[in-house]
Amino acid sequence: MQGSRSEVSLKRFNELLRKLYGQLASQSPLDVNDPNSPARQLYSILIQPIAAQLQKQKITTLLISADAGLQAVPYASLHDGQSYLGERYGLGMTPALGLTKLAVLPEKAQPQLLAAGASEFVGLNALPLVPQELDRVGKGKANQSFLNRSFTPQVLLQKAGDPLIDRVHIATHAEFLPGGPAAARLYSGTGPMSLRQLSQLRQRRGEGQLDVFSLSACRTALGDADSELGFAGLALQAGSRSALGSLWYVDDVATSALFVQFYRYLDQGLPKAEALQFTRRAMANGRMRLVRDQVIGAGGDVLLSKLTTSQQRRISTGLQHPFFWAGIQLLGTPW
């Protein structure tokens, strides 16, 4: 075991993080050719001290155990002057190694997926791509899928509580309100459910852990101090080995495409961290792209189709900017 320590002013660290988030939110250039840019400086503080050892030992996946002050760092967007960290490594994050199951599960010939989501809401913006997303993450097969009114809190808890289900994918809105887990809300097709309700899954499933719980929703990876790592963090506590959630308010076209591509890689047998890494890489290098009214995936297949003019416009300049792909965070077991 080797250790390394970096000392930095908390004020300077927070200022760098604030500037990086500003660049990401506005889709401004991250100035990665400039060693003083936030993406380069944060890499120097957090990763550079161990970079030589990572290369020497031919490490391909990093599991980052982050304290509360470091959980908001968009690690995938840090840059060493040659490439983004999210392109170079498979990344996973955990609030504590004790919460992370590191054993490798035997491969299942056909993992069972539960896909649920809502595209229509009262008082919230519609998410018109959710029906496509649910269909395509399941590859159109006879996985269980629940959309809008059929997606109720009771259905989610009952179906996800079935030990035969290996993967759960939720596409909807989420929001955090003061008051911890009971006040944080995930919107089903019939109304909101509290973050605390997800904790029932552990009791329902017994010893049968979910393999992955992904949340294609706004700001699901971060909550307040009482919410650990938000909905995705609670998915770990509820007995899922891994969870995916977003660090910031995401573009729904890019996010739907990202999750469809992620599941394509997952179905090819890639470990979760690598499936996300390869998806990020495909977006960053332009292999995932808009062609007329379709988003084409890394393998040349169609990820999304029949995009409206407005949806096309939002990604018309490409998906290369880290805003589109660095905010989706993998929590828990990286494989």
Describe the structure.
The protein has 12 helices and 14 strands. With 335 residues, it is an alpha/beta fold. The strands form 4 sheets. A 6-stranded mixed beta sheet has the order 4-3-5-9-10-14, with helices on both faces. α1 crosses α2, α5 packs parallel to α9 and α9 crosses α10. The longest helix has 16 residues. About 2% of the residues have low confidence.
Structural descriptors:
3-stranded antiparallel beta sheet, 6-stranded mixed beta sheet, 14 strands, globular, 12 helices, alpha/beta, 19% strand, 335 residues
Mean pLDDT across the residues is 89
Adjacency order of strands in the biggest sheet: 4-3-5-9-10-14
- What structural class do you assign from the helix and strand content? alpha/beta
Helix content class: 25-40%
Number of separate strands:
14
* Portion in beta strands: 15-25%
Briefly say what this structure is.
The protein is an alpha/beta fold.
Blueprint (SSEs and pairs):
Elements: H1 10-25, H2 38-46, H3 48-56, E1 61-65, H4 85-88, E2 90-94, E3 113-117, H5 130-137, E4 144-147, H6 153-160, E5 167-171, E6 174-175, E7 185-188, E8 191-194, H7 200-205, E9 210-216, H8 230-237, E10 240-246, H9 252-267, H10 272-284, E11 289-291, E12 294-296, E13 302-304, H11 309-314, H12 322-325, E14 328-332
Helix pairs in contact: 1-2, 5-9, 9-10
